[in-house]
Specification:
This protein is of the alpha+beta class. It is built from 4 helices and 4 strands, in the order E-E-E-H-H-E-H-H. The chain is globular.
């Protein structure tokens, strides 16, 4: 099992979004990828609860990882356990930044280096989520659209 930690930080018009995720990833011998949300066991330490974010963060993490796994041409199947989802004090942690941090953590595990165009799309995707309601889970498929 490999533990991957990933931060995502970005500033938009003087407002910073930030998220931190910790994933445990290991190959499995099944025919499917499995995503397990286990972040509820960790003490929750962020302003996200005030925003109603924790439940939404879990769903965003799950959907982001599902989309990324579907788009990546990786023949081995994985068990991914989401251990921590955190915001940072004085930062706006939105659902897209949580999912993005999960995607970047998965890419780190796979040693995949995204091209700058993909990172530009990711930053734009997160920026657009600042306008959305807290309950809205972003469509992570848009990151991978041509």
């Amino acid at each position: 099992m490999t533990v991957i930690e990933q931060k995502y930080l970005k500033v938009n018009k003087g407002i910073m979004t930030g998220s931190f995720v910790q994933l445990e990833i290991k190959p499995n011998d099944t025919e499917i990828n499995r995503i397990i949300i286990d972040s509820e066991r960790s003490p929750f330490r962020s302003q996200g609860l005030i925003e109603g974010g924790h439940k939404n963060w879990n769903e965003s993490a799950k959907q982001a990882l599902e989309v990324a796994l579907k788009k990546i041409n990786y023949s081995n199947k994985l068990d991914i356990t989401v251990k921590k989802l955190e915001g940072r004090i004085f930062l706006d942690t939105n659902n897209a930044s949580i999912g993005t941090a999960c995607i970047l953590a998965l890419w780190k595990y796979l040693e995949f280096k995204p091209e700058s165009e993909i990172m530009d799309k990711i930053h734009e995707f997160v920026k657009n989520d600042w306008k959305n309601e807290v309950e809205l889970i972003p469509n992570f498929e848009k990151i991978f659209e041509k």
